[in-house]
TrEMBL record:
Highest taxon, organism lineage: Bacteria
Name of the protein in question: Phosphate ABC transporter substrate-binding protein PstS
Family assignment from sequence similarity: Belongs to the PstS family.
InterPro entries attached to this UniProt entry: ABC_phos-bd_PstS, PBP_domain, Phosphate-bind_PstS
One function term, GO molecular function aspect: phosphate ion binding
Biological process terms in GO annotation: phosphate ion transmembrane transport
Database matches in SUPFAM superfamilies: Periplasmic binding protein-like II
PANTHER family: PHOSPHATE-BINDING PROTEIN PSTS
Residues reported in the UniProt entry to bind phosphate: S46, T47, A48, S76, D94, S183, G184, T185
GO CC, alphabetical: ATP-binding cassette (ABC) transporter complex
UniProt source species: Streptomyces himalayensis subsp. himalayensis
Length: 313
């Protein structure tokens, strides 16, 4: 899920605050919104949710032309840091705030207030790849973990051939690509690997990449661009980036009758297996990958794609 991190007693920005990519504000009957007459609301954070943010901001500003909202997709790590030091009014993250960050947020919030996590968007973290002549690639969690930890280094490795018996897999070198910046997408991907393949991926699920070797790129768009440009490359990013660049995506062998491809529908099925946690308006989703791994899939949902972004604002 994507979420927003919210706190504060209002925010006064400069006249130059803004994002040139945000659509111009044109009044329209977009929705029944109680608009503020004017104001500036700066935010920053996750690159995975930048496409959704751009759409939401455009729709709001068409209905409320007096309000200027800007979202800078600097990555979850940088966005949370800016939010906690009150440089922005909201932050976008792919994972909820840590308890110590919530406590820190109270220093810049209204008296008695603190930051809250507000789930806004859920979607699949696609595993995109570039391999000439190969489509409909299937991988499972242990094989993914070994690829991203540089233990499987060529595309015709026996573990990959076993999952793709009808594919003509070349001996091309695998080029795993990860985020160079602190990222909630990275944290969610590593959470999946450590939960679904704990015997292989024994690294902590942090926003910073923990695996060995591999290439790195800044932001989801950077990872997608490297994958798109290099034969043999594989990386992780929000599904919309693979759609925009027409990058092939991996289907995941979850133990169900058929491998599961990333899509809004399959990600929704995966998110439905999560547990809602939090108090009052402070909400987050918890995924118990160990339980899901033992069951092989969420009960009754053979179509669940479990590598999902839990994006908050």
């Amino acid at each position: 899920m994507a979420a927003a991190l919210l706190a504060g007693c209002g925010f006064v920005g400069s006249e130059d605050d803004g994002d040139s990519d945000i659509p111009s504000a044109t009044p329209a009957a977009v929705a029944d919104i109680d608009c503020a007459k004017k104001g500036k609301v700066p935010g920053s954070g996750s690159t995975a949710q930048q496409n959704a943010m751009k759409y939401w901001i455009g729709q709001y500003q068409r209905a409320c032309p007096g309000v200027r909202i800007a979202y800078n997709p600097v990555g979850s790590g940088a966005g949370v840091a800016q939010f906690l030091r009150a440089a922005t009014a909201f932050g976008g993250s792919d994972s909820p705030l840590k308890p110590e960050d919530v406590e820190l947020s109270s220093e810049n919030a209204c008296p008695g207030g603190r930051a809250i996590d507000l789930p806004m968007l859920g979607g699949p973290i696609a595993i995109g790849y570039n391999l000439r002549g190969v489509d409909n690639l299937v991988l499972d969690a242990p094989t993914l973990a070994r690829i991203f930890d540089a233990r499987i280094t060529t595309w015709n490795d026996p573990a990959i051939r076993r999952l793709n018996p009808d594919a003509e897999l070349p001996d091309t070198r695998i080029r795993p690509v990860h985020r160079s910046d602190d990222s909630g997408t990275t944290q969610n991907f590593q959470s999946y690997l450590s939960g679904a393949a704990p015997e292989v991926w024994q690294y902590p699920a942090e926003k910073a990449w923990q695996g060995r070797l591999g290439e790195s790129a800044d932001g989801s768009s950077g990872v997608a661009s490297v994958v798109d440009s290099n034969d043999g490359a594989i990386g992780y990013f929000e599904l919309s980036f693979s759609v925009a660049l027409k990058i092939e995506t991996v289907s995941i062998d979850t133990g169900a009758a058929e491998p599961v491809a990333p899509s809004p529908a399959t990600a929704s099925a995966g998110i439905a297996a999560a547990e809602i946690a939090g108090d009052g308006k402070d909400l987050r989703l918890n995924f118990d990958y160990a339980t899901l791994r033992r069951r092989r899939r969420p009960p009754g949902r053979a179509d669940a794609f479990l590598i999902t972004g839990r994006r908050a604002t």
